[in-house]
Amino acid sequence: MLSEVDVFISNYTLVDPEIYQLWVDGFSSSEAVNTLNLRGICQQTNAPIELVASDVLDHYRTYSLLERLLQMPLQLASEQLAFQIEPQTSQMLIEMYYEFDDAVVRDFLGKKLSAKHRKELDEVAEKTGVLLKSCRRQFDNVKRVLKAIEDLPGSLVTNIKQYFLLPEELAKRYAAVVFIACMRFEMNKKKLQYLTFPDLYHCANIMMSLWTYRYTGSEYFDTDLDREFLLDLPECRVLLENDKHHKHLVCIKLKPTLLERSYQELDMNFRSYSRAIIGIACNLHRSRELRSFFLELVERCLEPWRQVNWSHTDLRNFLGAYTQCALDMDVLREADLKNAFERYMKVVTSCLLRMYRP
User: Fold this and answer.
1) What residues does 221 pair with on adjacent strands?
2) Are 274 and 318 in contact (CB under 8 A)?
């Protein structure tokens, strides 16, 4: 007496985007069936739940077999013969597999992607509400991209698109992760926990565009900061030696736009604000200080402005006036120094405005 066996034979790989998304999100096959049932799949298809469960399980087996190729997108797209998949379906599979949750990847930033860290992902899952299996997939993907891309010359985005076949926006997000990891920025201090992945993505992009060799148009690594630029920055101390004149210019420029209380506060504390901004610049050529860049911005700049209740508009106006008035001063007349100060302030202004929470 032969037992009944469900058999499915096909020479073409079928992909159901809804079931695939559930697999990517870390749901078990039984959890996926329950989710689909709650979405009304049985009513929509007039199929019994047992048939839905059999179909989901078949899809899950296929996706598990595909996972090895998803970890090597170039092979999935062109070199493998095991699965017959249309190009647009292959691209969908790759994009969905490599998509990540901002909150999950934010937790990875500043940490070594070690086996020990991977074993502790249950804490990340609990904190973010993302299933543990999905957290592991995202951890492995980030580690895989970082290992493959970090030592390649040229644009991070271009390299990620070429080696992992990711769309532009997703490649940019991975590029920011790789840049932050390669720069070894401190990201785990309690004072930095309020910063979200979109905040750090914004800051990483502006730094790559203005502080790396990409800015000079030469052969470059996106993970290498322009050393000549960093070594020029200590010369900006000349502004502190002429801070009275600088303060006078800034106060004149801002007086029409500031409330009297804010104006008096700026008049009293200008020197300490300027020393903080220039002090950070002067130390960026040292690796240890560079790694503390975000923490320095928070402790030396943002916290004092929060204490005196500056609005976002106050901060924007101050940084704009501070930069422009400095560039107008004769002490920055040397072209290299003026260029270095302007590059520095563009990034610092953009980062501070993004990071500031009044």
Assistant:
1) 154
2) no
* Average pLDDT value over all residues in the chain: 92
225 three-state secondary structure? strand
d(CA 165, CA 88): 12
3-state secondary structure of 221: strand
* Backbone phi, psi, residue 225, to 5°: -80, 150
The rounded distance, in Å, linking the Cα atoms of 315 and 91 is 44
Taking the C-alpha atoms of residue 334 and residue 148, their distance in angstroms, rounded to an integer, is 41
Q: Output b/e per residue, 218-241; b: 16+ Cβ within 10 A.
A: eebbbbebbeebbebbebbebbee
Torsion angle, CA of 184/185/190/192, rounded to 10 degrees? -150
Q: What's the Cα-to-Cα distance from 131 to each of 23, 117, 143, 329, rounded to whole Å?
A: 11, 16, 19, 56
Residue 338: burial class (beta carbons within 10 Å; 0-12, 13-18, 19+): middle
User: Is a pLDDT exceeding 90 seen at residue 178?
Assistant: yes
Output the pTM of the full model: 0.91
SS3 content of the chain, % helix, strand, coil (to 5): 75, 0, 25
Q: What per-residue confidence (pLDDT) applies to 6?
A: 61
- Spatial neighbors of 262 by CB under 8 A, at least 6 apart, are 310, 314
Q: Where are the beta strands (DSSP E) in 119-242?
A: none
What's the pLDDT tens digit per position in 71-105? Answer: 999 988 776 777 888 889 999 999 999 999 999 99
In 76-219, at which residue ranges do the beta strands (DSSP E only) sit?
Answer: none
Interatomic CA distance for residues 157 and 312, integer angstroms:
31
Tens-digit pLDDT profile for residues 294-309: 999 999 999 999 999 9
The whole-angstrom separation of Cα 126 and Cα 130 is 7
Identify residue 8 by its one-letter amino acid code: F
- Report how far apart the first and last C-alpha atoms of the chain are (Å, whole number): 76
Please give the backbone phi and psi of residue 6, each rounded to the nearest 5 degrees, phi first. Answer: -75, 125
Beta bridge partners of 212: 225
